[in-house]
Write a structure and sequence with these properties.
The chain has helices at residues 5-23, 26-33, 38-45, 49-61, 77-82, 85-103, 105-109, 123-133, 140-148, 163-170, 184-196, 217-221, 240-253, 275-281, 290-297, and strands at residues 36-37, 65-68, 72-75, 153-157, 176-181, 203-207, 225-229, 258-264, 304-309, 317-323. The protein is an alpha/beta fold and 327 residues long.
Length: 327
């Protein structure tokens, strides 16, 4: 098909199969043993043998596994790349976080179900996926900017699974941080992850609404810099004014501090992939590009956009250093 629809449909099935595999015990078995024997793997995990064999053979047809004698399967180089942490993170984020919205989009369109009532995205998979997929910790830029500003204690609004703060405190024994997220699943994952990575004593995480500056007075007055990544655009759901008032209210309540606002960029082109559509399905505000953010942030009344950082290697992210002037 010249339209590319055939590739798209195959990609949908492969993404769903990869999600199944990555959420199953088969992925751990594979890591532990180096290969999977279909019958053993099915019996060990209580899985259906026919489905297990079929899933592995589907991956063979897609070039991810090679089948050896005795129904034993081993990853190919392409399969090894497909199982990389960044690839699995994209699968967790898009398929685990938003896949069920895609299959229900007709009901959303026909107003038979409403986002936020009968259906929501899966917050755990959004947090777990964005930790590697969109997360700024993959990117040295915000960490370098915070260090340059002399920050020690940082608040992360919409911290997801907390990896940005974890990376931040790993960079210096005098660093600490506090993460806030609306999703309890994300906060639980952040706490566990901080403990597991040995920095739980310098990080606090709590459930809260990042747009509620009053409720966050104590939390935010104790930090040097307020940071967020891929959270602020959610406020655009309620219009530009909601984002402008949130940031101006930060200036009102926390004068003399800085807000380092990180956002993934949306270009409204084919390269965005499904990044645009998931925001529509989940009734989020729609992200924008650097000039879109600059023109929005130029309308701030109390806070002031100071500098913009665009990483060379990841031009789909940008960081906006916003001054919250002293009164
Ligand atoms: C795309 S994820 C980014 C997570 C994290 N910053 C990262 O880069 O890995 C957006 C996060 O913002 C959180 N979020 C959205 N609206 C929020 C709000 N009003 N208050 C707090 N967190 C919010 C979501 O629960 C989600 O974890």
């Amino acid at each position: 098909m010249a339209s590319g629809m055939s590739v798209a449909v195959q990609g949908f099935a492969l993404g769903a199969a990869m999600f199944t595999f990555s959420e199953s015990k088969l992925i751990g078995d594979l890591a532990a043993r180096g290969s999977l024997q279909a019958k053993d793997a099915a019996d060990r995990n209580g899985y259906d043998y026919f489905q297990t064999l079929g899933l592995l053979r589907f991956f063979v047809t897609q070039g991810l596994f090679a089948e050896e004698t005795g129904e034993t399967f081993r990853l190919t180089p392409k399969g090894t790349a497909a199982m990389s942490p960044t690839s699995l993170a994209a699968i967790s984020f898009y398929i685990g976080g938003y896949g069920h919205l895609m299959t229900q989009s007709r009901s959303l369109l026909e107003k038979k179900i409403t986002y936020g009532k009968e259906v929501t995205r899966d917050s755990y998979h959004v947090a777990a996926g964005s930790k590697l997929n969109t997360a700024s910790f993959m990117d040295m830029v915000p960490l370098a900017v915070l260090a340059r500003k002399g920050a020690r204690k940082v608040a992360d609004l919409g911290c997801g699974a907390g990896q940005f703060l974890i990376e931040w405190v790993k960079g210096g024994a005098d660093r600490s941080g506090v993460g806030v997220d609306l999703a309890p699943e994300a906060i639980e994952a952040a706490r566990k992850s901080a403990q597991a990575q040995g920095v739980g004593d310098r990080l606090k995480f709590h459930v809260g609404d990042a747009f509620d500056n009053l409720a966050l007075t104590k939390t935010l007055s104790e930090v040097d810099v307020i940071f967020s990544f891929a959270m602020e655009h959610e406020g655009l759901r309620d219009g530009e004014i909601a984002v402008l008032s949130h940031i101006d209210s930060l200036a009102e309540h926390f004068p003399g501090k800085r807000y380092l606002l990180g956002e993934p960029m949306l270009h409204m082109s084919a390269a965005d992939g499904m990044f645009y559509w998931i925001h529509v399905l989940s009734l989020q505000g729609i992200p924008r590009d650097v000039s879109g953010w600059c023109s929005l942030l130029g309308k701030l009344k109390k806070a002031k956009l100071n500098e913009v950082f665009i990483p060379d290697h990841r031009q789909w992210c940008a960081y906006f250093d916003i001054e919250l002037p002293s009164k």
